[in-house]
Every structure is written in C-alpha cells, then in structure tokens.
Amino acid sequence: MSGWFSRKKAGSSNEISEAPSGGWNFDPTGFEKAAKALKDIDASPNAAAALEILQKQEETQKLEHKRGIEEAKAHQMQADSQRIKVAEEERRKTMEQEAYQQQKSLQYSDQLKRKRSEEERSAQSYMKDQERMKNEESSRKMEAERRATLAQELEVRAKAAKDRAMAEAEGRIVQERRNHDLKMKELAAEGDQKLKTMLESIKLVGTTVGEGISSYFNDTDKMIKTVGTLTAIAVGIYTAKVGTGIMGRFVESRLGKPVLVRETSKRTILDVVREPMESLKRVGAMFGSKDTNALRGVVLEEGLANRLQSVARATVNTKANSAPYRHLLMYGHPGTGKTLFAKQLAKSCGMDYAILTGGDIAPLGREAVPEMHKLFDWSQHSKKGLLLFVDEADAFLRKRGGEDASEMSEDLRNSLNAFLYRTGEASKDFMVVFASNQPEQLDWAVQDRVDEMVEFHLPGPIQRKQMLEMYFNKYITNAEGSKKENDTSIQMPWKKFARTIGVEDIGSKEDIDLKLDSYIDMTDGFSGREIEKVAIAWQASAYGSEIGDLTEEMMDDVINAYSEQAKAKREWR
Ligand SMILES: Nc1ncnc2c1ncn2[C@@H]1O[C@H](COP(=O)(O)OP(=O)(O)OP(=O)(O)O)[C@@H](O)[C@H]1O
Ligand SMILES: [Mg+2]
Q1: How many CB atoms lie within 10 A of CB 39?
Q2: Would the CB of 338 count as within 6 Å of ligand 1?
Q3: What is the CATH number of domain 261-457?
Q4: What is the DSSP secondary-structure string of 266-294?
Q5: pLDDT tens by residue, 58-93
Q6: How much is the pTM?
Q7: Which of 117, 175, 219, 364 lies at a CB distance of 3.0 to 4.6 Å from 368, suitable for a disulfide?
Q8: Does residue 344 line the site of ligand 1, with CB under 6 A?
C-alpha cells in the first residue's frame, strides 16, 4: 500500500493508465468492467428485484450462519454438559472409590486393632497362666518342702525319742548291772566265806568221810566250775527280773492310754491288770446282748434320726467288710447330742471309742506332736476298730492360713499337721468323728477329710416333751440308786436303795404328763443339755427339801429360774 500511495503522490494524473515503471502491473479494466456492470445493473429493470433477492439471499445466509452458530453453540453446550456429566460421573466414581478405600482401610485398621487386642489378651492370659502355673508350682514345692521338713522333723523327733528311751534303758541296765556286779561280788565273798567255813567243817569231819569227797573239795578246778554254774544261774534270775521291769515300762509307753485320750472304752493290758473285775465284766458284756441301737437315749427329730441311723448302719457294714471307714463331721448348737450320739454310735457298732478334746492339745506345747503320733499308734492297735471322736475340733484344727492364723501357735500348727499327716489316707483301723460348734473355722484340709456332715438343731416341741419325760424318769421316778419302778428283783440284804423321790404332790402319771406338757413352750430354745439340767435341778431340790419329795411348786420354780437364765443367755449371743 505504502508503495501504491507513494507512487500516487509522485505520479501524474494519467499515471493509472501508465505502465508501472517497476515490477507492479495493475490492470484497471477490471474495475472499469465492474463499474460498467454496476451501471448496467442499476439501469436494469430487474435490478431492484435482483437486489432484493440478493439481500434475501444474504439474510438467509446470515440466518443460516446464525443458526450454524447457534447449532455450534448448542453443540458446544451439549458437549460441555456431556463433559460435565462425565466429569461428575468420574468424580462420583472417584469419591466412591475413595469411600470404598476408606472403608477398606477402616476395616483393615479395625481388624488390626481387634487382632492386636486379641493378641494382647491371649498374651495376657498366657502370662496369667504362666504366673498361675508358677505360683502353683511354687506352692506345690513349698507344700512338698513343708511335708518333707515335717516328715524329717517327725523322724528326727521319733529317733530322738527312741534314742532317749534306749539311752535311758541302757543307763538303767548299766546301773543295774553295776549293782548286780556289786551284789555278785558280795555274794561271791559271802560264798567264799561259806565255802571256807564248809571246808573247815569238812576237814573236821574228814576222818569220817571217804577219800572221794575230800578229793573233790581238793580239786579247785571242779570247785570253781560249780561256783561258776551257781553264779550264772543267779545272774540269769536277776537279769530276768530287772529286764522284765524295763520291758514293763516299754510296754506301758507303747500300750498305755495316750494323754490326749480323755475317755475311752478301750482296755489296755495295764487296765486288765489294774482292774481285773471291770475287765471281766466287759468280757461278759461282750457275750451278752449287744446294744445295737445307735440312737438309744438320743432324742432327735425324725429326719436327723433317719440320717444318723443310716450312718450307723453304714459304719457297721464298713466294719464287717473291713472297708475303710468314712469320717463324719457333726456340727450345730452346743448341747444338742453330738457327743452323746458319737459314743452311742461307737458302742452300737461294736467299736472302741476314744474322746479327744481339741482344747487339750495347746497345753501340751512341744509334746503335742509326739502325743498325737502316740494317739494314732495307739488307735491302730484296736482289734474292734476305733472311733476317734475329736470334740471341739475347731480348737486345734482351725485354718492355718487365715485371719486368726496368727493366733495359732507353732506347736498347735505342728500338731494340726501331724493330725493331717496321720489321717491323710483312708483307714481301716479308725474312724474319725469331728464335732464342732464352728465348722466354718476348720482348716480346709480337715474339711476335705470329712465324708459325711450332719447338723444338729435345737430340739423342737416334740423332742422337748420326749426329753422332759425321759429325764424326769431318769432323775425323779427312777433316780440313780433308788429302787427302780419296774424292778422286781429281790433286794439283797447288803444292797441299800436310796429313798425314792415322792411325787404325790404332783399326782398320778397322767397329771405328771400334763405338767410336763405345760413346760413344752417354756423350754422353747432350750438345748438337750439344758433340759437335762432342769431335771437334775428338780432332783436336787427334792433331795434338798425336808421330806425329800418333789412338789409342783418346786418344779415351777426351777423351770422359771431356767427360762430366765435361757433368756439372758440368748441376749448375750
Ligand atoms: N438330742 C438329745 N437327746 C437326749 N439327750 C440329749 C440330747 N442332746 C443333749 N442331751 C443331753 O445333754 C448332754 C450333753 O449333750 P452332748 O454332750 O451330746 O452335747 P454336744 O452336742 O456334744 O454339745 P457341745 O457342742 O457343747 O459339745 C447329754 O449328755 C445328754 O444328757
Ligand atoms: Mg460335745
């Protein structure tokens, strides 16, 4: 253009028609033709229509173009919305994927956590198990050590006791031997003297006695032998005498009643020697009718009575079949017949019985353990089987480890251990019957030894009536020493009966019965022992009265006093 304008300024008015002097070749005819055509068109009558058509065509083209643009826009929008949709879809998918992944990771971490806590738990329980096993092992070890120590201690003690006994015996033997030697010397000296005198007298009568005899006395060898023989006989007799004494003491220590036994039906050899008549009576009783009722004189409510009958039957059968005995625990209120039943059980089963009281152990101190062993050694020597009744068992068989364990002395603990040691295995020689007012205090090892447990309750109204009647008969109607009601035996001149207690004031048998009935309620809460004591008190007041009879007033006074006492006792509990 700049070229075109620059040329226009510099050129003449005809310059268009002039041929350009440079390389540019412009043909103006084209313009001229177009201008001519335009002129033609303007001059043409259809020019307006053609222009209109042209305009219309142009408009149509514009419209088409616009539509094209709009279509393109619509396309664009559609494409945009499609894209947005796709993007949205993708975003949703991504979100879903993310959520899924998140859930997965949460699940995984949860699983991990659970697994970890499970592992921790199992590790903890493993540790606990290990700990428990360790504890068990150590307590087992301790128990074994304790047992070993105990066994050793017992062995040492037994050995010491044996050594002491041997030393004592030997000492005595030595002493006796010394005494004997002295005596023998004396005897020998005496013998020498006698011999000399004899020889002299023989010499004196030598002339009248033959040559043979004098040659015998002259033969010192023969003489010494004779003296030796005589001495040996004397020594034999003497040693036998001394030895029997020592053996006697040994037998006594082995077979005598152990100090722990309070009361026993078992006769020792020494008892037989000491009380031959009593022993004979017992032998007689053995062949006489036997008391096979374990509940004789024991008033109990029906359920308990049945249970104890079956215990008694089982014990008899155990004994008959020489099976191991079952140990029994009786517990309950004091004075309800535990001791009474235990004794009667032993008698009815044909066993010996021995009563051991828990409270007797502690005062023995260090001697308690050897005494305990002595007791069991002794128990094993009963031919009939022995019922060992441990009364007030809680006094020495109470828990070793517990609140009141510190109150327990070392000796008491040792005696408990000795007891456990000797009762650890089932025995065919003895049956242990424990009685306790506080069974919960018994050591668990003692509780473990119990095969049967029986609880004794305070007597109910029916039992109270039975006991009132029974003890009224025992202490009033058939008072000890007085002539029994139904006794038809002929009175021996040397046998004096005590005066029978008169009950005329109370009345006939029926009246007495009614009177006793009226005491049933008043004796509520009384134990069997208390009821018996009431009857004893009636007897005492009858004997204490001027005429020696029992009156209704006396009975009432006693009952009133006792129920007052019972009330006070109940308040103290
Ligand atoms: N159930 C009973 N039947 C007959 N008499 C009984 C009864 N209970 C107790 N008695 C009388 O009381 C006395 C004492 O009873 P026992 O010694 O048997 O009591 P316990 O239960 O052993 O008491 P504790 O726990 O105090 O030792 C007996 O000797 C008996 O006379
Ligand atoms: Mg008792």
Answers
A1: 10
A2: yes
A3: 3.40.50.300
A4: PPPHHHHHH-HHHHHHHHHHHHS-----T
A5: 888 888 888 889 888 888 888 888 888 999 999 999
A6: 0.54
A7: 364
A8: no
